[in-house]
Input
Amino acid sequence: MNQLELIQSKIYEIRGQRVMLDFDLAELYQVETRVLNQAVKRNIDRFPEDFMFQVTAEEWVVISSQFVMTSKNKRPKSALPLAFTEHGVVMLSSVLRSDIAVQTSVLITRAFVAMRQMIANSPVIMSAQLQKEMKELKEYIEDVFADQNDINEDTRMQIELINQVLAELQVHKKHLMYLLLVDYQYYTL
Output
């Protein structure tokens, strides 16, 4: 897995926003999570709510079910992680002030951009694919109905023939019964 894919695998959706969690960012920036969080707290005015927010307990349960933590030390059980939007991640590079932070921030921004482009292009592809599948499905259904109508027409003709044969048999039966009755009367006299 290349570095861009690795970063993209650490982007989650919470509250309708794509975010990265503090412990993943700390790992990428090669600092401890507590160091990253301390830097954020010292510069909290740089992280408005649309840049960073703390995950609720319910959100943490949902999001933590999406990944396997490789280390229990990544996050203390009582502490809820901070979630950083793309803008918050960019702001982190100015707060952490290291070459690694700047390089990592560029990579993370590229990962967010690549995801946006993939999502932006996806509906067009999905739409074309769905249209093609809908057209094929419509043609298939029309063929099935055409076959059904053919079967129904054939079945109607067969039923009509069967009814004609039954009607003829009834006429023959009545005629035969009449003949038998006449014949019986003739022999009984």
Q: What stands out?
A: Strands lie at 11-14, 17-21, 52-54, 82-84. The two ends are 108 Å apart (CA to CA).
